[in-house]
Design brief:
Subcellular location: Cytoplasm
Radius of gyration: 21 Å
CATH class of the largest domain: Alpha Beta
Keywords: Amino-acid biosynthesis, Aminotransferase, Arginine biosynthesis, Cytoplasm, Pyridoxal phosphate, Transferase
GO molecular function: transaminase activity
CATH architecture of the largest domain: 3-Layer(aba) Sandwich
Modified residues (N6-(pyridoxal phosphate)lysine): 249
Cofactor: pyridoxal 5'-phosphate
Strand order of the largest sheet: 4-12-11-10-7-5-6
Distance between the termini: 24 Å
Number of domains: 2
Helix content: 25-40%
Order of helices and strands: HEEEHHHEHEHEHEEEHEEEHHHEEHEEEH
CATH topology of the largest domain: Aspartate Aminotransferase, domain 2
Number of strands: 17
Shape: globular
Length: 404
């Protein structure tokens, strides 16, 4: 049996995974090497939107694996064209670029925005505006655009002409944006930054000011997209349409894929040879994502997201009234953040570990936020059982107990 300490011997030490090694998953339940069962409220960080090993996704993957795995972009393939058509039909977009991850999708969006600005408005229009505490990926450009200095430390010099402003502060944005700005990138809900929803007036203001200054508005929907908020994409719940949208995570429900969506006018700046990806748009990923999109973009499923949100929030509020760990509980659909009271600041990771010992998998979003991103189709019985186990972890943290 492979041991957890082997990870430390053979893997680069940029991760510090849990002591357990999961080996099997089905729906919203996971089993580790010892056979212990866990309720999964983490969802692979908002990736496993249809749970683990969804039978229809497994079927599609098996069928495609017997037809065609990879061609490169010297040729196209049916699953890629089909998925692009579905995404365009379901959104504002007219054309799609496929990559392998959210970071790559954001990298493509930012490169496209700069190229488009230079072609249409001149070489001096290069500034990218992003927001404090944002997260857009780990490539050198996307980590620089992300508004969290802890992720750029040691990687200097960083790409230039990137400005960070306060999130939800429209006045600060209006004061700063200029005709030098080529693009504004924003998360409709900051995920890694603490589950902070954008105010509608803020996003509406970004749209109006981008139009005024001929800047492209990019929505990073890596975490909020594919049904997570109860809409297929979060922008559809606001009176705002971006120029470019990025998607990944739940797009493949666990199979790696990313996508950048935009209009034909903007896409034209990615002329032949200007950008690419060896594996982007491969038949396996696109076949799985096509079925995932078909299943998620369903009114009954999306309505169920809001029903499950109410179950979680009502129960978490009741638990918190009794235990009193959380200062605030925030959510949009099944993207849920529980902010610890000041007394418990810095304890989010400890609570996560205690929850795991009780048999429920959760996440953090910084040192003070417990984050839940479960499957969009998690059964009510799993919600109830997982919350019962989370209760024991909350009590253990409050009482200073080691957990069991």
């Amino acid at each position: 049996m492979i041991k957890r300490n082997t990870f430390n011997e053979v893997m680069v030490p940029n991760y510090a995974p849990s002591p357990i090694i999961p080996v099997r998953g089905a729906g919203s339940r996971v089993w580790d090497q010892s056979g212990k069962e866990y309720i999964d409220f983490a969802g692979g960080i908002a990736v496993n939107a249809l749970g683990h090993c969804h039978p229809e996704l497994v079927k599609v993957l098996q069928e495609q694996s017997q037809k065609l795995w990879h061609l490169s972009n010297v040729w196209t393939n049916e699953p890629a064209i089909r998925l692009a058509r579905q995404l365009c039909d379901a959104t504002f977009a007219e054309q799609v670029f496929f990559a392998n991850s959210g970071a790559e999708a954001n990298e493509a969006a930012l490169k496209l925005a700069r190229r488009y600005a230079k072609e249409h408005f001149g070489r001096e229009k290069t500034e990218i505006i992003a927001f404090n505490n944002s997260f857009h990926g780990r490539t050198l450009l996307t980590v620089s655009v992300g508004g969290q200095p802890k992720y750029t430390e040691g990687f200097e010099p960083l790409p230039e002409d990137i400005t960070h402003l306060p999130y939800n502060d429209l006045a600060a944005f209006e004061y700063h944006i200029s005709d030098h700005t080529c693009a504004v990138i924003v998360e409709p809900i900051q995920g890694e930054g603490g589950i902070i929803p954008a105010e509608a007036v803020f996003l509406e203001g970004l749209r109006a000011l981008c139009d005024k200054h001929n800047a492209l508005l990019i929505f990073d929907e890596i975490q909020t997209g594919m049904g997570r908020t109860g809409n297929l994409f979060a922008y559809q719940g606001y009176n705002v349409t971006p120029d470019i949208l990025t998607s990944a995570k739940a797009l493949g429900c666990g199979f790696p894929i990313g996508a950048m969506l935009t209009t034909k006018k903007i896409a034209a700046s990615f002329s032949f040879g200007s950008h690419g990806s060896t594996f982007g748009g491969n038949p396996l990923a696109c076949a799985v994502a096509s079925k995932a999109l078909e299943l998620i973009n369903d009114p009954t499923l999306l309505s169920g997201v809001n029903q499950r949100q109410r179950m979680f929030i009502n129960s978490l509020n009741i638990l918190n009234e009794k235990i009193g760990l959380f200062r605030d509980i925030r959510s949009e659909g099944l993207l849920i953040g529980c902010e610890l009271k000041e007394k418990w600041h810095g304890k989010a990771s400890e609570l996560k570990q205690l929850a795991e010992k009780q048999g429920v998998m959760v996440l953090t979003a910084g040192p003070n936020i417990l984050r839940l991103t479960p499957s969009l189709v998690i059964p009510p019985k799993d919600i109830n059982q997982g919350l019962k186990q989370l209760t024991e972890a909350m009590l253990a943290l409050k009482m200073g107990l080691p957990g069991t």
